[in-house]
Structures are given as structure tokens and as C-alpha cells.
Amino acid sequence: MRLFITRIKGFIKYTDLMNELVSRDLKLKYRRSILGYLWSILNPLFIMIIMTIVFSRMFKRGNIPNYPVYLISGQILFNFMNLSTKSAIQSINGSASLLKKTYVPKYIFTVSKVESGLIDCIFSFGALLIVMIFTRNHFSPYLLLFPLILIQEFIFILGLSMLLAASNVFFHDIYYIYNAITTAWLYLTPIFYPIEYLPDMLRWFVVHLNPMYAYVTQLRCLTLYNCFPDISMIIYGCADAVIMLMIGIWFFLKTQDKFILYI
User: Which terminus of the chain has fewer CB atoms gathered within 10 Å of its CB, N or C?
Assistant: First the structure.
């Protein structure tokens, strides 16, 4: 318990540094960009338009009432996970020069990457609202619950990022392997197709072993189906988030003292 309190105090002590790291990441991302933060809205809009043109005819007979909203709801959450983890996986190796010069809690660099991704994701919700307005989608009071889904996914991404960042210090191939995994993960998440299109065995795998399915389904309940998400889906999403966070923190703290020997 004393160790836990010490770590919490250390986290609070370096809050200003973390805020600076988040601010730096956002500024570097949009440096020399004319539209700046508007790209957080425009980018998912452009991708949604292209994918709608490509796939809407293919799934026009499916049970999807508003395909553009269906598509962008899944796209925003998956992009949050994909971009945040790929940025965080290099967070320790990319901060080697600073870690060799002075003491800084190593997890600060990984957490800041995920926080930067969260801010981008929040901006991207502007694109979702624009699509809902243009497609005359019904706005339900349940939409106000979207932060609960972001919290679940943020915790899950944070745990996964800490696991990946620590692993990548020792095995640099992790970065390239993870790129391949996320490609498969994208197609195994019903973002641009209805889950009913999958074979029964593969559908069971996606529903029960793919955390992104839980988060995407919850958001679609709020935006597309105007209902409260199924309680089992919420429990599943929360359980995945907590388990992944525990695994990530455990592995990161167990290996962090050896980072300096490999970076």
C-alpha cells in the first residue's frame, strides 16, 4: 500500500512534465500544417467518405440503418487504439537521450503518448457529429454517455501501450510485428461490415476475444441505435480494460530497471 501511495505521489509530481510532453506531441504532429487541429476532424471524414463509397453498395442489404454513422463510429475508436499504441510503442526508445541524463519516471513518456491520442480522438468526435447532422441521424440523450466508453478504451490502450513499449526496448521487432497484427485486427473488427457477415466460429472469436468489438458496439448503441449499451458488453469492456492495464503495469514495472541497458 505504501508503494502504491508513493507511485501516485510521483505521478502527481511529474504532471507538469507530462502536460508538456502531450503539448509537444500535438504541436509536432500539426507543425507546418495550415489547417492544424482541423485535420483531426477532416481526416476521419475523408476516410469515411471513401469507405462509404466503396462499401455502402456491398452492404446495402444488410441491417445497417445509417452506414456513414455506422462506419465512422467504429473508425474513430479503432484509430484511437491504433495510432496511440503505435506512437507509444517507441516512447521509451525515443526518449533514450533524456533517460540517460536524468531521472524521470519512465512511464511518463508512454502515458503522454496515449493522452495525446485521447485528445485527437476527442477532436475526431466532431467529425462524427457532422456526419450525424448531414445524415439526419437522431440525436439521443444517450450520446452524452460517450465519455464512459472513452474511459474504458483509454484504460485498455494504456495497458497495451505499456506492455508494447516495455517489450520493444528488448525486442525491436515488436514494432514491425505489431504493424501486421493491427492490420489483421482491423479486419477482425466489424467496422465497415456487419458482424452477421462473419462465419459462426469467427463471429464467436470476434465477440468474445476482441475488446475493440465491445467498445465499438457500445458507441454504436449511443449514436446509431439510440439505446443504452447492453450491460454485459459494458462489463466485458471494463474487464478487458482492467486486465490489460494490470498486465501492462506489471510487465513495465518488472522490466523498467533494465531499460537503461538496452536503449
Answer: N
In this prediction, residue 11 carries a pLDDT of: 63
What is the DSSP annotation of the chain?
-HHHHHHHHHHHHTHHHHHHHHHHHHHHHTTT-SSGGGHHHHHHHHHHHHHHHHHTTTTTTSS-S-HHHHHHHHHHHHHHHHHHHHHHTTTTGGGHHHHHHS---THHHHHHHHHHHHHHHHHHHHHHHHHHHHTTPPPPGGGGGHHHHHHHHHHHHHHHHHHHHHHHHH-TTHHHHHHHHHHHHHHTS-SSS-GGGS-HHHHHHHHHH-HHHHHHHHHHHHHTS-SPPPHHHHHHHHHHHHHHHHHHHHHHHHHGGGGGGT-
**Cβ-based neighbours of 53, under 8 Å, separated by 6 or more:** none
Sign of CA dihedral 93, 98, 101, 102: negative
Under 8 Å between Cβ of 169 and 259: yes
Low-confidence stretches of the chain (pLDDT < 50) are: 61
Q: pLDDT tens digits for 175-186?
A: 899 999 999 999
pLDDT, tens only, 75-128: 999 999 999 999 999 999 888 888 877 778 889 999 999 999 998 899 888 889
Burial class (CB in 10 A: 0-12, 13-18, 19+), 42: middle
From CA 53, how far away is CA 124, in angstroms rounded? 20
Q: How far is CA 151 from CA 10, 49, 77, 217, in A?
A: 22, 28, 12, 15
